[in-house]
Design goal:
Helix content is 35%, strand content 28%. It has helices at residues 47-54, 77-87, 103-113, 118-131, 147-159, 177-194, 205-208; strands at 4-15, 21-32, 36-40, 62-67, 70-71, 88-92, 165-169, 197-201, 213-218, 221-224. The chain is globular and about 50 Å long.
Length: 225
């Protein structure tokens, strides 16, 4: 068995003071390099909160998260931002593309932020957009793309720096069933081709079953689904 790429121990997340609500309750998790892990559960149980903590977009009330043995919450804000940009690719339910930039510019953005030369960033972005079936949409802005195309651009953007892990938060939740199945299939194909570890939060249990492993978040803890 490989060493875990991502490990969480004793994660707690509590909201509120007077009548606190516990969303995560001493949760433990290990994610092995190269696996596709699906996390399912009812709306509002804390799936997105868990994913955001794993990616340092949110902080836990207690507990620790390690990535390749590095304690993520011992890093300062600048180090966490560098970690998110270089090591993690995020895909959200809503694509969060920049409306004034075309598809290839949106995909290039993380690479440019990381200091990559524009010519190299362009080549990487074009290659990824061609891989996700959008080679003829490079100069299209978000307003000119369908919902499925927008999510494919978002997936390409998440992969432009070849991150070790992709964290996908309901990436198909805003799509019709047929388009959702296509996007989900694309994520699995990219995992097979690149070996990118993927943690996928979804309410679609049928799609989740194609992952290597499925866990259910219930009452603040993860259980085998």
């Amino acid at each position: 068995m490989s060493e875990p790429l991502l490990r969480a121990e004793g994660l707690c997340k509590v909201y509120g003071d007077g009548q606190p609500i516990t969303v995560l309750d001493h949760l433990d998790l290990e994610v092995i390099t190269g696996e596709v892990l699906a996390i399912v559960g009812q709306s509002g149980v804390g799936k997105s909160t868990l994913l955001h903590i794993l990616g340092t977009l949110d902080t836990p009330s207690a507990g620790r998260v390690w990535f390749e043995g590095k304690d993520l919450f011992s890093l300062d804000e600048k180090q966490q931002a560098e970690f998110r940009n270089r090591e993690i690719g995020f895909v959200f339910q809503f694509h969060h593309l920049l409306p004034d930039f075309d598809a290839v510019e949106n995909v290039m953005m993380p690479a440019l932020i990381a200091g990559m030369r524009r010519s190299e960033a362009f080549l990487r972005a074009r290659e990824l957009l061609e891989r996700v079936g959008l080679g003829d949409r490079l100069d299209h802005r978000p307003g000119q793309l369908s919902g499925g195309e927008l999510q494919r651009v978002a997936i390409a953007r998440a992969l432009v720096l070849s991150p070790k892990a992709v964290l996908a938060d309901e990436p198909t939740g805003n799509l019709d069933p047929e388009t959702a199945a296509e996007v989900h299939k694309l994520l699995l194909e990219l995992n097979r081709e690149r070996g990118t570890t993927c943690v996928l939060v979804t309410h679609n249990e049928e799609l989740a079953r194609s992952a290597h492993r499925v866990l259910r978040l219930h009452h603040g803890k993860l259980h085998r689904a």
